[in-house]
Amino acid sequence: MSSLHIKYNMKQNLYQYWLFGFVGKLHLASSIFERMCSSGVAPSIQTFNMMISVYGRSQKLDRAVEMFRKAPSLGVPLDEKTYMNLIGYYGKAGKVHEASQLFNKMQEEGIKPGKVSYNIMINVYANAGACHEAEKLFQAMQRQGCSPDSFTYLSLVQAYTQSLNYSEAEETICTMKSKGILPSCAHFNILISAFIKAGMINEAKRVYEELPTFGLIPDLICHRTIMKGYMENGCVEEGISLFESISTSIKGDTFIMSAAVHFYEAAGMKKKTEELLCMMNKMGIPFLRKLEFGSRVKVKTS
């Protein structure tokens, strides 16, 4: 390799290093990219991937698409990462059709998707509630020899709950366990949230209480989710019982402690209310007075 070629590669790598440091800063990254091009240093596929991320994160999807199209026009072949990078941003923008078309085009170009790519596309469908499409891709993934992982199943649970297919969501969690993939609190929290959103507080409570049967201890997010459900539905006894069972493990969580104050107030437990407010004050935890209590049953605290 000639010394000239070595110097060229060093310049290219230097620009890429600068870009990497400014991926979250649109104007600086754009300036570096323009300077790179104007100085005669050709961008690599890694450079284009960074610029797609720069514009995608800044919600400049049209410019991200421009970068995607510019690469092959300069003789830089697109790779799987480039396709999936843009597909991910299409998904975040709610452009499911465009994401799906690009995923198909990638395969037509001879690029075989791997597990990560399948997961990204299934997640795009899941967030849009496109349950049928997520199912089809889940099946295609396995036919191509890619084994689903925890993230795959997480997206599938999301797809089912988004399309109100709660029984399928629960069955999916049981299926992954039978396949030797242990579900996490995140899988259950999606289901708990969906039940609460649908006004099915008893089902949400059932799922929350079943976590230990899967060898799981509910995490803080699960605690917050079910507490929110109890707040919205005015479930005073359940809310107090939950708080008193987890109070030593939540480490001063603002929402849960504030919710507990509302529950004690609603139950007329003045002493408990004052004690908890005093504790929060000593810990420097603000009380969320405006939390809605019983919003689903048209009852609010004063």
From TrEMBL:
Keywords: Repeat. PROSITE patterns: PPR. Coiled coil: none annotated. It comes from the Eukaryota. It holds the Pfam family PPR_2. Gene3D superfamilies: Tetratricopeptide repeat domain. PPR repeats lie at residues 44-78, 79-113, 114-148, 149-183, 184-218. The keyword Repeat applies. InterPro entries: PPR/CCM1_RNA-binding, PPR_rpt, TPR-like_helical_dom_sf. This is Pentatricopeptide repeat-containing protein.
